[in-house]
Amino acid sequence: MHLPIFSTFTAMSSKIRHTLVICCLVLAGFSSCRKSGASWDTNFSTPLFKTSFGIGNLIADSLLSQNPDTSLTLVYNSVLGNYTLDSLVHIPDTAVRNNYTLPFGQTILHTGDPITPGPPNNTNQTVYPLHGVGLKTAILRSGIMHINIRNRVRKKIQFNYQIPSASINGIPFSQTVMVPGSGPGGSTGVFSADYDLSGYTVDLRGLQHNSINTVITVVNANIDPNGLPGDTVTVSSNDSVVVISSFKSLVPEYAKGYFGQTIQKIGPAESPFNIFSKVSSGSILLKSVTLNFHIENSIGLDGRINIADIYSKNSRTGSTVHLNAPIVNTPININRGTETHTSPPVIASYYSQVLNNSNSNTKALLENMPDKIGYSLTLATNPLGNVSGFDDFIFYGYGMKASLDLQLPLALVANDLCLADTVAVSFNKPDSPLSRLHKCTLRLTADNGFPLDATVQLFTLDKNAKSTDSLISVPTSISAAPVDANYRATGQTETIIEFPVGETKITNLLNASKMRLVVRFNTIGKPSYIKIYSTYLINFRLSGDFDYTIKLH
Description:
Elements: H1 14-29, E1 39-54, E2 64-66, E3 72-83, H2 85-88, E4 94-101, E5 107-110, E6 123-127, E7 134-151, E8 157-168, E9 171-179, E10 189-196, E11 201-203, E12 214-223, E13 232-235, E14 240-258, E15 262-272, E16 279-286, E17 290-297, E18 303-314, E19 319-322, E20 332-334, E21 338-339, E22 346-347, E23 349-355, H3 362-367, E24 372-381, E25 392-395, E26 400-409, E27 411-424, E28 437-448, E29 453-461, E30 467-478, E31 493-501, H4 503-510, E32 514-522, E33 530-531, E34 537-551
């Protein structure tokens, strides 16, 4: 849908420059026949700028939906809270240290001899502290395992590290590496490497499949089997192999288990509400407002939300309106989502409560013309405990979201509803003959396509957007468009405003970087609730009649 929006044309048309140049050239041709210092006054008329005011000067086009009759409905969504995987499941970085001290006294080891105890002593179980969360399985979206091996034996060691409980495409994690032996003077041989765990499925139930949060690892090490046959090395209790495996930045793509009972406070907080950001003053009355309070739960757990407060805040006026509705201070139970094992992987559960003129003060909430929506609520997870038997689930990118969906038909009563916008201009360029203007009359033409009475003011601004002068200082009336029996505009009404500009204002005009139009709308004297259509526009044209002095030297 294309809606009319503010557009700016050239601040000074080429016509004025061409006119002045031709005048100067023609008059210069007579300079040889005239006495030095002669001067002439001349007059010319030229356009200065064009611009349009449409509904886009009130509300961004992206928020508007056009109905079949081209009337408009404002559609807006505000998210009050978003509960995601990282809010529920955080796997901390964990380091596992395996220290293999060799037998007391001196021992002779041959090529290929093991230096770690045999099964099951070389199998380790690491339990992650997940703070009330008990995971049975997880698929990792990302994560790193860092292995650091320190060898004090004076031979290379072949090292094999396995995670039987972590697999990708059915193949368990297994890495075999060669670790340098210790050097002269007792220096330690070191091996260090990172391994990507993205995409691995991790069974966290332990060796007996009856645990939670448990990772199984298996470590095996042998004297370099590629050494010379019969080669030996003497080791003592001072020799050791230290293996540190560190799991870092583990982020699940999917997790299953029990996510615990938690109570999370959301807010008090405020979100920007920019629907009325272009309105600088005035007030409105709305015919109807519909708010849909909506909860979408794509997590496999039950929840309960309690909304303590929702309010609209107008920072310009300092006014705050609190929502009075059935959803406030009433516990709302939320059913869990359903796992599908297809695409999409989960079917969300929904809760919805429609708020309108009959069951709430939503109309007053929006008539406050807020720039912020405030809220305060609490979310409890698994309020009845582990009713799923460790079958809670969550997918990355899916969560629980609470939001407000607004539908606002643009039918309103306007009381000095003030809109403003600026037009970039550039009159006073170097060597411009306009610097010799001594008098002018400006003409602002307004073609009003809104069925609303309006007034307009016009100001000059400097490069810092600070007002330097008022060309139309007193709000001047613009007539409403003609209407049919339903008060829908059938055309445009032209209003011409002329005003003289003296030398001081001419100076401010020439030095202006921008011009600011301020328009105020009123529906006084009209039936209540004028409907707004996408075709409505006010077109402005500013032109001038200039008196200009030409001097010959």
